[in-house]
Design a protein that fits this description.
single chain, 248 residues, mainly alpha, two-stranded antiparallel sheet
Protein backbone atom coordinates (compact mmCIF):
# COMPACT_ATOMS: atom_id res chain seq x y z
CA UNK A 1 0.00 0.00 0.00
CA UNK A 2 1.47 3.32 -1.11
CA UNK A 3 0.49 6.46 0.80
CA UNK A 4 2.09 9.75 -0.14
CA UNK A 5 4.36 7.92 -2.56
CA UNK A 6 5.70 5.65 0.21
CA UNK A 7 5.17 1.89 0.14
CA UNK A 8 4.52 1.28 3.85
CA UNK A 9 4.27 -2.49 3.41
CA UNK A 10 7.93 -2.39 2.42
CA UNK A 11 8.77 -1.62 6.05
CA UNK A 12 7.47 -5.05 7.07
CA UNK A 13 10.92 -6.30 6.06
CA UNK A 14 13.20 -6.27 9.14
CA UNK A 15 16.13 -4.71 7.28
CA UNK A 16 13.96 -1.74 6.27
CA UNK A 17 12.08 -1.34 9.54
CA UNK A 18 15.27 -1.29 11.63
CA UNK A 19 16.60 2.08 10.36
CA UNK A 20 13.08 3.58 10.31
CA UNK A 21 12.62 2.71 13.99
CA UNK A 22 16.02 4.19 14.76
CA UNK A 23 15.01 7.51 13.21
CA UNK A 24 11.70 7.60 15.09
CA UNK A 25 13.03 6.85 18.59
CA UNK A 26 14.65 10.26 19.35
CA UNK A 27 11.50 12.11 18.26
CA UNK A 28 9.22 10.07 20.47
CA UNK A 29 11.58 10.43 23.44
CA UNK A 30 11.70 14.20 22.92
CA UNK A 31 7.90 14.40 22.75
CA UNK A 32 7.59 12.22 25.85
CA UNK A 33 9.97 14.44 27.82
CA UNK A 34 8.36 17.72 26.79
CA UNK A 35 4.82 16.50 27.39
CA UNK A 36 5.82 14.84 30.67
CA UNK A 37 7.30 18.05 32.06
CA UNK A 38 4.31 20.07 30.87
CA UNK A 39 1.81 17.54 32.21
CA UNK A 40 3.45 17.37 35.64
CA UNK A 41 3.53 21.16 35.82
CA UNK A 42 -0.17 21.31 35.01
CA UNK A 43 -1.04 18.50 37.40
CA UNK A 44 1.09 19.48 40.37
CA UNK A 45 0.91 23.28 40.21
CA UNK A 46 -1.94 24.47 38.00
CA UNK A 47 -4.70 21.95 38.77
CA UNK A 48 -6.83 22.98 41.79
CA UNK A 49 -7.01 21.02 45.03
CA UNK A 50 -9.82 18.47 45.06
CA UNK A 51 -12.65 19.36 47.44
CA UNK A 52 -12.98 15.80 48.81
CA UNK A 53 -9.55 14.16 48.47
CA UNK A 54 -7.32 17.17 48.95
CA UNK A 55 -3.84 16.98 47.47
CA UNK A 56 -3.67 13.18 47.45
CA UNK A 57 -5.74 12.99 44.26
CA UNK A 58 -2.81 14.34 42.22
CA UNK A 59 -1.42 10.83 41.88
CA UNK A 60 -4.09 10.31 39.21
CA UNK A 61 -1.88 12.18 36.76
CA UNK A 62 0.39 9.13 36.80
CA UNK A 63 -2.06 6.43 37.88
CA UNK A 64 -4.75 6.97 35.24
CA UNK A 65 -2.41 7.28 32.19
CA UNK A 66 -0.54 4.16 33.37
CA UNK A 67 -3.82 2.25 33.73
CA UNK A 68 -4.95 3.37 30.27
CA UNK A 69 -1.64 2.33 28.74
CA UNK A 70 -1.69 -1.05 30.47
CA UNK A 71 -4.87 -1.91 28.55
CA UNK A 72 -3.97 -0.20 25.28
CA UNK A 73 -0.58 -1.92 25.10
CA UNK A 74 -2.14 -5.31 25.77
CA UNK A 75 -4.58 -4.83 22.89
CA UNK A 76 -1.71 -3.71 20.66
CA UNK A 77 0.41 -6.68 21.76
CA UNK A 78 -2.42 -9.12 21.08
CA UNK A 79 -3.11 -7.42 17.75
CA UNK A 80 0.49 -7.79 16.59
CA UNK A 81 0.57 -11.37 17.87
CA UNK A 82 -2.62 -12.12 15.92
CA UNK A 83 -1.17 -10.64 12.73
CA UNK A 84 1.94 -12.74 13.27
CA UNK A 85 -0.15 -15.90 13.65
CA UNK A 86 -2.42 -15.26 10.66
CA UNK A 87 0.14 -13.94 8.18
CA UNK A 88 3.25 -15.65 9.60
CA UNK A 89 4.82 -12.21 9.89
CA UNK A 90 8.09 -12.29 11.81
CA UNK A 91 8.16 -8.56 12.46
CA UNK A 92 4.64 -8.61 13.90
CA UNK A 93 5.59 -11.29 16.42
CA UNK A 94 8.69 -9.32 17.33
CA UNK A 95 6.57 -6.22 17.90
CA UNK A 96 4.36 -8.20 20.28
CA UNK A 97 7.43 -9.31 22.24
CA UNK A 98 8.77 -5.75 22.34
CA UNK A 99 5.50 -4.36 23.73
CA UNK A 100 5.11 -6.89 26.56
CA UNK A 101 7.69 -5.43 29.01
CA UNK A 102 6.30 -1.91 28.55
CA UNK A 103 2.79 -3.20 29.20
CA UNK A 104 3.92 -5.04 32.31
CA UNK A 105 5.64 -1.87 33.57
CA UNK A 106 2.52 0.23 33.00
CA UNK A 107 0.35 -2.36 34.76
CA UNK A 108 2.70 -2.53 37.75
CA UNK A 109 2.81 1.27 37.89
CA UNK A 110 -0.99 1.45 37.80
CA UNK A 111 -1.27 -1.06 40.64
CA UNK A 112 1.44 0.59 42.73
CA UNK A 113 0.13 4.15 42.35
CA UNK A 114 -3.38 2.83 42.93
CA UNK A 115 -2.24 1.42 46.26
CA UNK A 116 -0.66 4.76 47.19
CA UNK A 117 -3.90 6.50 46.28
CA UNK A 118 -6.07 3.89 47.98
CA UNK A 119 -4.45 4.18 51.40
CA UNK A 120 -5.55 7.78 52.13
CA UNK A 121 -8.80 7.42 50.14
CA UNK A 122 -10.06 3.96 51.19
CA UNK A 123 -7.93 3.41 54.27
CA UNK A 124 -6.32 0.29 52.77
CA UNK A 125 -3.40 -0.42 50.44
CA UNK A 126 -5.28 -3.20 48.68
CA UNK A 127 -8.80 -4.60 48.48
CA UNK A 128 -10.02 -7.47 46.33
CA UNK A 129 -12.04 -5.07 44.25
CA UNK A 130 -13.18 -6.21 40.78
CA UNK A 131 -11.10 -3.63 38.93
CA UNK A 132 -7.99 -4.07 41.07
CA UNK A 133 -8.19 -7.85 40.79
CA UNK A 134 -8.68 -7.83 37.02
CA UNK A 135 -5.78 -5.38 36.66
CA UNK A 136 -3.63 -7.78 38.70
CA UNK A 137 -4.70 -10.57 36.33
CA UNK A 138 -3.49 -8.35 33.47
CA UNK A 139 -0.04 -8.18 35.07
CA UNK A 140 0.01 -11.98 35.33
CA UNK A 141 -0.96 -12.21 31.64
CA UNK A 142 1.97 -10.00 30.67
CA UNK A 143 4.34 -12.04 32.83
CA UNK A 144 2.87 -15.27 31.47
CA UNK A 145 3.34 -14.09 27.88
CA UNK A 146 7.00 -13.25 28.46
CA UNK A 147 7.68 -16.39 30.52
CA UNK A 148 6.04 -18.71 28.00
CA UNK A 149 7.96 -17.16 25.13
CA UNK A 150 11.25 -17.43 27.00
CA UNK A 151 10.63 -21.07 27.97
CA UNK A 152 10.48 -22.31 24.34
CA UNK A 153 13.78 -22.60 22.51
CA UNK A 154 12.34 -22.53 18.99
CA UNK A 155 11.51 -18.88 18.31
CA UNK A 156 8.70 -19.51 15.84
CA UNK A 157 7.01 -21.99 18.16
CA UNK A 158 7.46 -19.53 21.01
CA UNK A 159 5.82 -16.78 18.93
CA UNK A 160 2.81 -18.97 18.19
CA UNK A 161 2.34 -20.22 21.76
CA UNK A 162 2.73 -16.79 23.35
CA UNK A 163 0.55 -15.25 20.63
CA UNK A 164 -2.30 -17.63 21.41
CA UNK A 165 -2.02 -16.80 25.11
CA UNK A 166 -2.13 -13.07 24.30
CA UNK A 167 -5.27 -13.50 22.19
CA UNK A 168 -7.05 -15.52 24.89
CA UNK A 169 -6.15 -12.90 27.49
CA UNK A 170 -7.85 -10.10 25.53
CA UNK A 171 -11.09 -11.03 27.27
CA UNK A 172 -9.69 -9.54 30.47
CA UNK A 173 -9.43 -6.01 29.01
CA UNK A 174 -13.20 -5.32 28.75
CA UNK A 175 -13.57 -6.88 32.20
CA UNK A 176 -11.17 -4.27 33.59
CA UNK A 177 -12.88 -1.43 31.77
CA UNK A 178 -16.49 -2.34 32.57
CA UNK A 179 -15.93 -3.84 36.03
CA UNK A 180 -17.15 -0.72 37.84
CA UNK A 181 -20.39 -0.88 35.83
CA UNK A 182 -20.96 -4.63 36.01
CA UNK A 183 -20.28 -5.05 39.73
CA UNK A 184 -20.69 -3.00 42.89
CA UNK A 185 -17.03 -2.10 43.37
CA UNK A 186 -15.13 0.17 45.71
CA UNK A 187 -13.22 1.65 42.79
CA UNK A 188 -14.78 4.86 41.49
CA UNK A 189 -16.24 5.02 37.99
CA UNK A 190 -14.63 6.78 35.06
CA UNK A 191 -14.46 10.56 35.33
CA UNK A 192 -13.61 10.90 31.63
CA UNK A 193 -15.33 9.40 28.58
CA UNK A 194 -15.41 10.14 24.87
CA UNK A 195 -18.46 12.35 25.26
CA UNK A 196 -18.19 13.99 28.68
CA UNK A 197 -15.98 14.70 31.67
CA UNK A 198 -16.80 15.42 35.29
CA UNK A 199 -13.33 16.83 35.96
CA UNK A 200 -12.32 20.48 36.13
CA UNK A 201 -10.70 21.65 32.89
CA UNK A 202 -7.15 22.08 34.35
CA UNK A 203 -7.31 18.55 35.82
CA UNK A 204 -8.53 17.08 32.53
CA UNK A 205 -5.88 18.95 30.55
CA UNK A 206 -3.11 17.70 32.82
CA UNK A 207 -4.33 14.11 32.59
CA UNK A 208 -4.59 14.14 28.79
CA UNK A 209 -1.13 15.67 28.41
CA UNK A 210 0.34 13.03 30.72
CA UNK A 211 -1.48 10.31 28.77
CA UNK A 212 0.12 11.54 25.54
CA UNK A 213 3.51 11.61 27.29
CA UNK A 214 3.04 7.98 28.34
CA UNK A 215 2.05 7.07 24.77
CA UNK A 216 5.21 8.65 23.35
CA UNK A 217 7.44 7.04 25.99
CA UNK A 218 5.99 3.56 25.44
CA UNK A 219 6.36 3.85 21.67
CA UNK A 220 9.98 4.97 22.02
CA UNK A 221 11.07 2.19 24.38
CA UNK A 222 9.16 -0.44 22.41
CA UNK A 223 10.91 0.64 19.21
CA UNK A 224 14.25 0.44 21.02
CA UNK A 225 13.40 -3.05 22.22
CA UNK A 226 12.23 -4.31 18.83
CA UNK A 227 15.51 -3.14 17.28
CA UNK A 228 17.39 -5.29 19.77
CA UNK A 229 15.11 -8.25 19.03
CA UNK A 230 15.60 -7.72 15.29
CA UNK A 231 19.39 -7.82 15.61
CA UNK A 232 19.24 -10.86 17.87
CA UNK A 233 17.02 -12.88 15.52
CA UNK A 234 18.61 -11.65 12.27
CA UNK A 235 22.20 -11.73 13.50
CA UNK A 236 23.25 -14.17 10.78
CA UNK A 237 22.04 -11.92 7.95
CA UNK A 238 24.30 -9.49 6.14
CA UNK A 239 22.33 -6.38 7.06
CA UNK A 240 22.31 -7.24 10.79
CA UNK A 241 26.03 -8.00 10.78
CA UNK A 242 26.62 -4.65 9.10
CA UNK A 243 24.44 -2.87 11.67
CA UNK A 244 26.41 -4.55 14.44
CA UNK A 245 29.71 -3.66 12.80
CA UNK A 246 30.62 -7.30 12.23
CA UNK A 247 32.08 -7.91 8.77
CA UNK A 248 33.99 -11.14 9.21
Amino acid sequence: MAVGGINWFGYAAPQRFYPLAGRMIPWFFAVAMLLGVWGLYLGLWKAPTDAQQGESYRIIFVHVPAAWMSMVIYLAMAGWAGVGLVFNSRLSSMMACALAPSGALMTFLALWTGALWGKPTWGAWWVWDARLTSELVLLFLYIGFMSLHASIDDVRRADRAAGLLALVGVINVPIIYFSVKWWNTLHQGASVSLTKSSMATPMLMAMLVMALAFWAYCIAVSLMRVRVILLERERHTAWARQALGVFA
